[in-house]
Automatic annotation (TrEMBL), chain A:
It comes from Streptomyces xiamenensis. This is ABC transporter permease. The chain crosses the membrane at residues 16-39, 83-106, 118-140, 160-185, 219-239, 275-297. Residues 80-293 form the ABC transmembrane type-1 domain. It is found in: Cell membrane. Belongs to the binding-protein-dependent transport system permease family. PANTHER family: ABC TRANSPORTER PERMEASE PROTEIN, DIACETYLCHITOBIOSE UPTAKE SYSTEM PERMEASE PROTEIN NGCF. Keywords: Cell membrane, Membrane, Transmembrane, Transmembrane helix, Transport. The lineage of its organism: Bacteria, Bacillati, Actinomycetota, Actinomycetes, Kitasatosporales. Pfam families: BPD_transp_1. One of its GO terms (cellular component) is plasma membrane. InterPro entries: ABC_transporter_permease, MetI-like, MetI-like_sf. The keyword Transmembrane helix applies.
Automatic annotation (TrEMBL), chain B:
The chain crosses the membrane at residues 21-41, 82-103, 115-137, 149-171, 192-214, 248-271. It is found in: Cell membrane. InterPro entries: MetI-like, MetI-like_sf. Gene3D superfamilies: MetI-like (1.10.3720.10). This is ABC transporter permease. The keyword Hydrolase does not apply. GO terms for cellular component: plasma membrane. GO terms for biological process: transmembrane transport. Its main location: membrane. It comes from Streptomyces xiamenensis. The keyword tRNA processing does not apply. Keywords: Cell membrane, Membrane, Transmembrane, Transmembrane helix, Transport. Residues 78-271 form the ABC transmembrane type-1 domain.
Length: 307, 286
């Protein structure tokens, strides 16, 4: 390679060359589709006459009409409400369990650490569709061990796949699948806390409980922010689990979650324009939530630094 | 653990509560896995009549039924999943490695902007991408092809984010600078100096991406119509859908689910040895 500099500083062009593959992929598979989705969301099909023959259906500018239609669509709003309820169960339970398990793995009085860590992380390796499928069978009265036990004691068997229990049934799949991943993220952060911090705390007479509450949890706050942020995003995008459970129950509509409605509108209803508008709304909500949240998190960490 | 064994034992005596809680958590997480292992051994009639955690007698029969189903389409799904996840994760780890390294080791105009734009990709719901991705793939006649499922998953914003952290923690700038003083080019420094140092982190990224792609459902669901190209998740989903009308297919779904999970469990156990959870703290020590 030709020497094109006198100092040993980094060359100017190298980082851009290194980032080229990511840039090209981003442009083709992220930026272009997003731009196209926004474009589609601002257009609609106009049908002339009976809509028969060529030229009867034409694509025209729609302004924000797809958006106003989507935002006043009770089907979408119901779906959003369902996902909100679902998220209010999933996120606190999953992150609470992840934090508790991570703290317990990190406490030095525990046995079977390697085995339990692996076992709790294991569901992460199982595809959401297959997890939903397995739990779906476990909820099914004719197969479920719970129902088998209740039946042998002559007790009534709850229907886990309808009404309010359906939220618990769906939330359980997400909690089961996600706790281990979040536990590992928090546990990794706990392992990174230098031992001197603990020694100082012990010399000051802190109990294990105080160490956990006053030192460990504040020090892993950035990981908690990260896991919270990923969990909320994953919750907004819930799709696979309710879709997989549908064949097993009549109480899951094709519009159960907003993303299911997008799929339904685009690929079953054939209305890509209103589907795109709904998709853009979901993306905007996701962005607003996560950026707002990141701002709060950043402001907090800056305050900590200035103290 | 450098603590003397006596104090370690003394401390362990009071550890029954966290230990019990962890084992309870482990039992909860293993429950469906144990169930599917047991259920896979049951014949169709045993599935609905015997205790769910008791093994049955139909394992070999289920296996041959699954293999026979539509001339072994299940094994095609398995091969497809391996192709999508293996190749996709490999390319993804490579792209993440160069990008993360560049973002960590160079100071250049637009660095944070590029990073933030890439990271914003994490926030993008798959459907907002999947609908237009489908339409754009249709424009270039790539829908219902292996490429339509493979190409969109190569770029992983999360992988780049991790690679940047690993590159910053594991590759000391002094070493890069020393490479420059020896007259090595930037690409050569990356390949021979930085890449080996980042290797443990890249294994993690590969694993995350492999799992993510293996578990992917929505993208293939939208892109593919020919079931010869389906990955396992989509294949099993269609099988379950048909099973709602023909319960005889349930035994196939169950043994299919078990076999779909085994490779990932094997991969996990295998990769544990290379996968250092203490990577970040380890890098700080050196």
């Amino acid at each position: 390679m030709k020497k094109h500099r006198t100092s040993y500083g980094a060359p100017r062009r190298a980082p851009y060359a290194f980032l080229l593959p990511a840039g090209v992929l981003f442009a083709l598979f992220f930026a272009l589709p997003i731009g196209y989705a926004i474009y589609l969301s601002l257009r609609k099909i106009e049908v002339k006459g009976l809509g028969l023959g060529s030229g009867a259906r034409s694509e025209v500018w729609a302004g924000f009409s797809n958006y106003t239609a989507a935002l006043s669509d009770p089907v979408l709003l119901d779906g959003a409400l369902r996902v909100l309820i679902y998220g209010l169960i999933v996120v606190p339970v999953m992150l609470g369990l992840a934090l508790v398990f991570a703290l317990m793995l990190d406490s030095d009085r525990v046995r079977g650490r390697a085995f339990t860590r692996l076992a709790i992380f294991l569901p992460y390796a199982i595809p959401g569709v297959i997890a939903a499928l397995l739990w779906g069978f476990l909820y099914l009265p004719s197969v479920s061990p719970l129902h088998y036990l209740l039946d042998s004691f002559g007790l009534p068997q709850p229907d886990l796949l309808s009404g309010g229990a359906l939220y618990i049934a769906l939330a359980n799949i997400a909690v089961w699948g996600g706790t281990g991943f979040n536990m590992i993220v928090i546990y990794t952060a706990l392992r990174a806390i230098p031992a001197e911090v603990y020694e100082a705390a012990r010399l000051d007479g802190c109990s294990q409980w105080q160490i956990a509450w006053r030192i460990k949890i504040p020090m892993v706050a950035p990981s908690l922010v990260l896991t919270f942020f990923f969990s909320v995003i994953a919750t907004l995008q819930v799709y696979n689990e309710p879709t997989t459970l549908r064949p097993l129950t009549n109480s899951l509509s094709t519009n159960w979650s907003p993303l299911m409605k997008v799929y339904q509108d685009a690929f079953v209803g054939g209305d890509i324009h209103s589907a795109s508008a709904t998709a853009v709304i979901i993306a905007a909500v996701t962005f607003a939530l996560s950026f707002g949240f990141l701002r709060v998190a950043n402001a907090r960490s800056r305050r900590e630094e200035n103290r | 653990m450098t603590a003397p064994t006596t104090t370690l034992r003394a401390r362990r005596r009071g550890g029954w509560l966290p230990t019990a809680a962890l084992f309870l958590g482990a039992a909860y997480c293993l429950l469906p896995v144990v169930w599917v292992v047991m259920a896979a051994t049951k014949s169709g009639s045993e599935l609905f009549s015997t205790f769910t955690f008791w093994p049955g007698t139909g394992f070999a029969e289920n296996l041959s039924d699954l293999s026979a189903y539509r001339d072994g389409v299940y094994w095609t799904w398995m091969a497809n999943s391996a192709l999508y996840a293996g190749l996709g994760a490999l390319l993804s780890a490579a792209v993440s490695a160069v990008s993360g390294y560049a973002l960590a080791q160079y100071r250049f105009r637009g660095r944070e902007t590029i990073f933030n734009i890439l990271l914003a990709g994490v926030l993008m719901p798959p459907v907002i991408l999947a609908v237009p991705q489908y339409l754009l793939m249709a424009e270039v006649s790539l829908t219902d092809s292996h490429l339509s499922v493979l190409l969109p998953v190569i770029l992983s914003p999360y992988g780049i984010y991790l690679a940047r952290i690993y590159a910053a923690a594991a590759v000391p700038p002094d070493v890069v600078e020393a490479g420059r003083m020896d007259g090595a080019g930037e690409w050569r420094i990356f390949r021979t100096v930085a890449l080996p140092m980042m290797a443990p982190g890249l294994v993690t990224i590969f694993l995350f991406q492999f799992v993510a792609i293996w578990n992917n459902f929505l993208l293939p669901y939208i892109m593919l119509s020919d079931d010869e190209k389906f990955p396992l998740t989509l294949g099993l989903f269609t099988l379950l859908n048909q099973g709602a009308n023909t319960p005889a297919l349930y035994t196939l779904v169950i043994i299919g689910a078990l076999l779909a999970v085994l490779p990932l469990i094997a991969l996990f156990l295998f990769i544990q040895r290379f996968w250092s959870l203490d990577l970040l703290s380890g890098a700080v020590k050196s």
